[in-house]
Here is the input.
Amino acid sequence: MAGRIKTCRFKIHVERGAVEYFQVSIYPTRKRMVVAIRLNEGHPQNKYRNACGAFFGYRSMRNDGSPGEFLGHIYLCKRYLGVSTLTHECVHAALHWGRVKKVKLSGKSEERFAGVVGELVRQIGNRCCSLRVGGWA
Here is the structure.
């Protein structure tokens, strides 16, 4: 289809066995990623025009008022899909998860936060390898 943004989309879970998840979208170019951010998130294009990635956190709710499973959206673009960008956006996602779950960052919880970051990076990295996307191919 003409004009359609081609992207890789998939879900990643916060921890093994967890129901909470983040949506990940990997765009072929920065321009397409920025357009998607504007369309999906309502942010002006110029705010993210030099971004290598972006994270938007959400607190979804079920009809009964209990917390939903969707936690946020990680936007990445193929050209800048390296360890630094991937880890940076996963740290944002893990911190958002901690706020939603009311997990305070402390000496005791630091390992859990680090584990969440590692799990998010592992899942995205594995998916990128299997899709042969970015420098992970």
Remarks:
- The two ends are 26 Å apart (CA to CA).
- The first helix runs from residue 30 to 41.
- The chain is about 40% helix and 20% strand.
- Confidence is low (pLDDT under 50) at residues 1-5.
